[in-house]
Write a structure and sequence with these properties.
337 residues; alpha/beta; Isopropylmalate Dehydrogenase; two-stranded antiparallel ribbon; 11 helices; 23% strand
Length: 337
Amino acid sequence: MSTHVTLIPGDGIGPSITNATVRILQAAGADLEFDSQVAGMAGVARFGDPIPDATLDSIKRTRLALKGPLETPVGEGYRSINVALRKTFDLYANVRPAHSIVPGGRYTDLDIVLIRENTEGLYVGVEHYVRVGDDPRAAAESIAIVTRQGSERIVRYAFEYAVKHNRQKVTVVHKANILKFSQGLFLDTARMVARDYEGKIQLEERIVDAMAMNLVLHPERFDVIVTTNLFGDILSDEISGLVGGLGLAPGANIGVNGAIFEAVHGTAPDIAGKGVANPGALVLAACMLLEHIGDDDRAQRIRHALETTIRDGKTVTRDLDGTASTDEFTDAVIAKL
Ligand code: NAI
């Protein structure tokens, strides 16, 4: 039976790279049935809402979405797209694999997966100003909320990911030496979860500042990394930089009630409509979706076709120093399949 997937083409280069990705999935014989829905500026144009109820309802039904980049409309009164999606589907795990594909980069043999807690920490938005004398904004406080339940589910997700993908080690990144309560709770919980995987998956602990340096000096030493929201936000971009930037970076937001797969890059307004965007990141996100539904072999086949097309370097898009259009690049990947 086909798997139903909500397809959100998105804004800017979104429709073009989504179309390319769907063509590649179909050429690979993926048994997916797409329910196309709008969000972002396309959502505003059609329904006056960047995240229309029809789109949320579709994801509630399918519990799976493949999403192109979205432009968040500026101005008051619009719902934040990411917050709405994260809250509605409790998307607690942000998964960002980084793997060297393009030859000649700074590091040629990296294969790191960063798993970031997506719902807690300093990003919960509990903030306020503190008045001192007649200055109403003399100070400001932001509160980081870390729960045992939230920590346990993200660390367990990381260990389960490691088991499923034949990984060896999970590095827990924290700052428990200074933030003894919030980060301490995260670290204690991680140690507790790790006991269930003793003998199977190794636990490693790193303090975030040392981790930032180690990622630059010896990134090949890392395998799966799990950390809290703010540290994950920063380290995931650092790791993308190690493998050549955001151009080929996929991401997944996994939750209790759904999973959304997307490219990490944005709508690329400077090249939108020119037919030259690289669909690679969204194709890799689609491979993550296939793995999520257990179609690992097909994901592997598509990834191999994409990577060999890029390594051949003959028919690649401008961002990869080629001259091919989005369609020509897509045709080359399909030919490799
Ligand atoms: P961007 O990622 O769209 O573009 C940065 C640079 O990378 C541009 O030069 C662009 O041409 C290039 N680029 C990005 N993707 C590419 C691709 N697939 N092929 C070739 N070149 C590519 O970031 P920017 O300019 O900061 O943001 C533009 C818009 O995208 C904003 O409205 C922002 O809010 C939105 N955005 C949406 C995201 C999402 O929906 N997940 C994520 C990041 C940004």
